[in-house]
Amino acid sequence: LRVLRVAGYSSPSSSPSRNATKQRLPGAIIIGVRKGGTRALLEMLNLHPDVEVAKAEVHYFNVEEHYRRGLAWYRSQMPFTLPGQVTVEKTPGYFASPQVPQRVWEMNPAVRLLLIVRDPAERLVSDYTQVLHNRVTRHKPYKSLEELLLRQGHIVPAYKALQRSLYHQHLDRWLDVFPREQVHVVDGEALIRDPFPELQRAERFLDLLPRITPSNFYFNTTKGFYCLLSAGGHDKCLDESKGRPHAPLSSRAFRKLCRYFKEPNRLFFEMVGRFFSWC
Ligand SMILES: Nc1ncnc2c1ncn2[C@@H]1O[C@H](COP(=O)(O)OS(=O)(=O)O)[C@@H](OP(=O)(O)O)[C@H]1O
C-alpha cells in the first residue's frame, strides 16, 4: 500500500522496495506568498521524478493546534519518498506569520525556502476575491473591497490583505533567521507567462538534475493558463479557484494602492537584489 502512495512510480521495473519508502520531513518549503502562484509552483515541481509533494497545505508552523502535535505529526502529513527524493510542502500562510521562521529553522536549519511573489496590488485584489468567494459560498455578509481598503479616500493600513502584501516586512523576519542564499525568489508573473524558465531556476536551487522540460507545459486557451503534462501522459490544469476573475476595484483606488506600495516594493527589491516591474 505504501509503495502505491509514491506517485510517479507505476512501472513494475522502477517500483521501489517497500522498505525504501518512508515519510520524511520536507527538504524544501514553499512559504508564500498567499495568492502568488504557490499551488502552480508546487504542482510544477512535482513533475520532477525526484520531487514528492504534500498535496494539501499542512499549516504546521503557523497553526498552534498543529504545532503542538510535534514533528512526528508533521512528518505524518508528508508523502512517502525514496532516499534521494526531495519532499516539498507549501503553506502560503507561513510567510506572514511572525513565529514561523524560527520554528522552521529549529526543524531544519538547512531547509530550502521558495518564495513566489507577485505584484502586491494584484495580490491584494486576488486575496480579497478569495475571501469574498468563501463568504458568498457560506451565505455570510461581506463588504466591498473599497469599503475595506479606503476610509475617507485614504488607504487603511490595518487591512489584513494589505499587510500581507508588505513583502519586505515579512521577508525581513525570515532573513533574521535564514541566510539570503537559502531563500529562492520565484517571479509569479513570469511563471504564468512562461513556466519553464522559472522551473529550471527552481531545479538548480534545489540541486536537482534538469528533468523538467518545455514539453511538460502547454497553454490551455480555455483555462487561459499553462497546464501540466507529466511524463506518464497525465494532463492537469489547476482548479477553477486559480485564475478566476477578480472583484472590481476602481482604477482610482487601484492607483492609490500602487502609490502606497511604491516604497515597500523598493525596500523589497533592495532586500532580494532584484527588480520587478510591478505597478
Ligand atoms: N498555471 C496556472 N494555472 C492557474 N493559476 C495559476 C497558474 N500559474 C499561476 N497561477 C496563479 O496562481 C494564483 C493563485 O495563487 P496560489 O496558488 O498561491 O493561491 S493560494 O494562496 O494557495 O490560495 C492565481 O491567482 P488569481 O489569478 O488571482 O486567481 C493564478 O493567477
Descriptive tags:
11 helices; 279 residues; five-stranded parallel beta sheet; 36% helix; three-stranded antiparallel beta sheet; 15% strand; binds 3'-phosphate-adenosine-5'-phosphate sulfate; disordered N terminus; alpha/beta; globular
By DSSP, the count of extended strands is: 12
Number of helices: 11
SS content category: alpha/beta
Average pLDDT, to the nearest integer? 93
Order of helices and strands: EEHEHHEEHEHHEEHHEHHEEEH
Terminal residue distance: 50 Å
Spatially, the strands of the biggest sheet line up as 3-5-2-6-9
Gyration radius (Cα, Å) is 20 Å
Bound molecules: 3'-phosphate-adenosine-5'-phosphate sulfate
Query: Considering DSSP H and I runs of 4 or more, what fraction of the residues is helical?
Result: 25-40%
Runs in which pLDDT lies below 50 for 5 or more consecutive residues are 1-16
Task: Give a written overview of the molecule.
The protein is an alpha/beta fold and 279 residues long. The protein contains 11 helices and 12 strands. It has helices at residues 38-45, 64-67, 71-76, 100-107, 120-137, 145-149, 160-163, 167-175, 188-193, 195-205, 251-272; strands spanning 22-23, 28-32, 51-53, 80-81, 86-90, 112-117, 150-151, 154-155, 183-187, 217-220, 225-229, 235-236. Strands 3-5-2-6-9 form a 5-stranded parallel β-sheet. Helix 8 (167-175) packs parallel to helix 11. Bound molecules: 3'-phosphate-adenosine-5'-phosphate sulfate. 3'-phosphate-adenosine-5'-phosphate sulfate binds at residues 34-40, 92, 126, 130, 191-192, 225-226, 238, 242-244.
